[in-house]
C-alpha cells in the first residue's frame, strides 16, 4: 500500500510483482512469471471449483450449497436461453465460466484480507486481463458467425430492411460498432473495477492522513471518509456482480448476433 | 498507472496465466460440473412433473371409481326399493285375503246367531201364545164363568197379539 517516503500511492495496489522468484520464468522465449495477479487467478479458480463442486452432489432434494449453485447455473441458463434461444444451450458452459470467473475475481478482490496481511489483487482491474477475456468472447462470436453463416456473416453489417442506397453508409457504421465491441467489453469491466478500488484507496488514505493530523481533522475528515468507504464497499459488491453480469450478458447478446444474424 | 507502465513486461505472463486458469475453470467447472448440475435440475423437474402426472392419474381413477360406485349404489338402492315395494304389496294382499276370510267367517257366525235368535224368538212366541191362550181361557172362565174352547181363545189371542 504505502509507496516511497510514506506517501500513499493509490495506484500502488495495481502493481504486478513476480512471486517466488519466478520473474525469469520463460516458455519459448516468453516471460510467464508467476505474479500476484496469477496467484489471485489461481485462488479464484480454486474457490470457483470448490464452490461449484459443492453443488454437484446431484441430490434430489438440494442442500444449501447445491441450491446456491443450482440457482446460479439456472440464472445463467435462463439468461442464455432468453438471449440466444434453444441453440444457446451449448454456450452455457462458456458463459457460466465467464460470469463466475469474473464474479469471483471481483469479489475476492474486495475481501478485507488486508487486516490479516494478505493483499488481494483484483486482476479484473487490469486491461490486459479484461482485454483477453473480451477478445476470447469476440473470437467465439467471429468463429460461430463464420462457421454457421460463412460469408453471409457480413450481412450483419447491413441490418434487415436497409434501403440499398443507404448500404454504403450503414455498413461502415455497423462495422465500426461491431469492432468496438471487444474494447467496450474490456474497458467497462476494467474501468469499473479500477475506479472502485481507486476510490476506496483514496478514501482510505484520507482516513489515515486525517487521523495522523490530529483529533480535529480526524473527526472532520477521517470519520466521514470512513462512513463513505463503508457505503462504497457495499456499492462495490453490487458493482462486482453487475459487471460480471454485464460481461456475460453482452457476450451472450453478441453470440446471439452470430447465431441468428439480427 | 501500473496497468500501462507494466503492460509490456507483464502482458505475456498475465495472458499466459489467465488462459491457464480460465481454461482450467472452463474445462473443470463449465464443461465438467455445470452439465451435471443442469442434469440434476432437469431430472428433478422431470420427476416433479412425473409425480404430478401420476397424482393426477390416481385422482382421475379415484373419481372414476367413485362414479362407478355411485352408479352401483344407485342401482342397489333402486333394487332394494323395488324389493320393499314388492314385499309390501305382497303383505298387503295377504292381509287383505286374511281379513276377507275372517269377515266371511264372522258374517256366517252372525247369520247363524241371527237364525238362532229368530228361531228362539219364534219358539218363545209360540210358547207365549200357548201361555196366553191358557191365561185367556182361565181369565174368561173366572170372570165370565164361561168356558171358551181352546181354539176360540187361541184365535182371540192371535188377534190381540197381531194388533199389538
From TrEMBL, chain A:
Ranges that cross the membrane: 28-52, 91-115, 127-147, 228-255
Principal location: membrane
InterPro entries: ATP_synth_F0_asu, ATP_synth_F0_asu_bact/mt, F0_ATP_A_sf
Cellular location(s): Cell membrane; Membrane
Keywords: ATP synthesis, Cell membrane, CF(0), Hydrogen ion transport, Ion transport, Membrane, Transmembrane, Transmembrane helix, Transport
Gene3D superfamilies given in the database record: ATP synthase, F0 complex, subunit A
Function: Key component of the proton channel; it plays a direct role in the translocation of protons across the membrane.
Family membership: Belongs to the ATPase A chain family.
Protein name: ATP synthase subunit a
Organism encoding this protein: Alteriqipengyuania abyssalis
Lineage: Bacteria, Pseudomonadati, Pseudomonadota, Alphaproteobacteria, Sphingomonadales
From TrEMBL, chain B:
Keywords assigned by UniProt, alphabetized: ATP synthesis, Cell membrane, CF(0), Coiled coil, Hydrogen ion transport, Ion transport, Membrane, Transmembrane, Transmembrane helix, Transport
Keyword Transmembrane: yes
Membrane-topology descriptor: Single-pass membrane protein
A Pfam family per the record: ATP-synt_B
Coarse class of the protein's main subcellular location: membrane
Ranges annotated as spanning the membrane: 15-34
Subcellular location as annotated: Cell membrane; Endomembrane system
Superkingdom, taxonomy of origin: Bacteria
Coiled-coil zones: 70-130
UniProt record similarity statement: Belongs to the ATPase B chain family.
Protein function: F(1)F(0) ATP synthase produces ATP from ADP in the presence of a proton or sodium gradient. F-type ATPases consist of two structural domains, F(1) containing the extramembraneous catalytic core and F(0) containing the membrane proton channel, linked together by a central stalk and a peripheral stalk. During catalysis, ATP synthesis in the catalytic domain of F(1) is coupled via a rotary mechanism of the central stalk subunits to proton translocation. Component of the F(0) channel, it forms part of the peripheral stalk, linking F(1) to F(0). The b'-subunit is a diverged and duplicated form of b found in plants and photosynthetic bacteria.
Quaternary structure and partners: F-type ATPases have 2 components, F(1) - the catalytic core - and F(0) - the membrane proton channel. F(1) has five subunits: alpha(3), beta(3), gamma(1), delta(1), epsilon(1). F(0) has three main subunits: a(1), b(2) and c(10-14). The alpha and beta chains form an alternating ring which encloses part of the gamma chain. F(1) is attached to F(0) by a central stalk formed by the gamma and epsilon chains, while a peripheral stalk is formed by the delta and b chains.
Protein name: ATP synthase subunit b
Native source species: Alteriqipengyuania abyssalis
Gene this chain is encoded by: atpF
